[in-house]
Amino acid sequence: MKSWRTGVGVAILLFQAGAIVYARFVPARYFCWAPFDMQTDYRLEVTVRGRRLTPQEIRRRYRRPAQGTDNRAARHIMDIVEGYEERYGRADQAQVVMRYRVNGKAEQEWRYPPRP
Questions:
Q1: 35-82 pLDDT, tens per residue?
Q2: DSSP letter at 71?
Q3: Largest CB tally within 10 Å, which of 25, 32, 113, 115?
Q4: How would you write 46-69 as a 3-class SS string?
Q5: What pTM was computed for the model?
Q6: Is 50 left (phi over 0), alpha (psi -120 to 50) or beta?
Q7: Closest residue by Cα to residue 32 from 47, 21, 41
Q8: pLDDT category, 11, cuts 50, 70, 90?
Q9: CA distances from 24 to 15, 62, 101 (A)
Q10: CB pairs under 8 A, 24+ apart, for 23-27?
Q11: Is the per-residue pLDDT at 1 higher than 70?
């Protein structure tokens, strides 16, 4: 019985170690033990059927402010937008532009849907 518990404990620790190593090399970093090691300042601009949404409409749509700071990777915000658009907003023809800066570095731009 004791060796079984030891094996389960070792397996859990190995899984956690693997997840941490994996998280260091992917943009989302959901499995990282220190997910708050970066700060992302961002601005969302959303157009639905040709009409630009207000900051209040963006907040209602994504449950995120149109502009703010997130203590996680920029990919976290991108995943929220993609998740909403792919589940609920398919018929809305939404165009999203997110301008963001990670840890005060150069501004970058991300778009949904991605341009070919």
A1: 567 899 999 999 999 999 999 999 999 999 999 999 888 999 999 999
A2: S
A3: 32
A4: EEECCEECCHHHHHHHHCCCCEEE
A5: 0.72
A6: left
A7: 21
A8: confident
A9: 14, 26, 19
A10: 27/73, 27/74, 27/75
A11: no
Q: Which of 91, 89, 95 is nearest to 113 (CA)?
A: 95
Token pair recorded at residue 61:
């749509």
DSSP 92: G
- Three-state SS for 32? coil
Residue 110: both structure tokens together: 């991300």
Tokens of 20: 């941490």
pLDDT per residue as tens digits for the range 13-31:
888 777 777 766 766 656 5
Residue appearing with tokens 């943009």? 27
DSSP 34: -
Residue 113 DSSP class: S
**Token digits of residue 75:** 């990919």
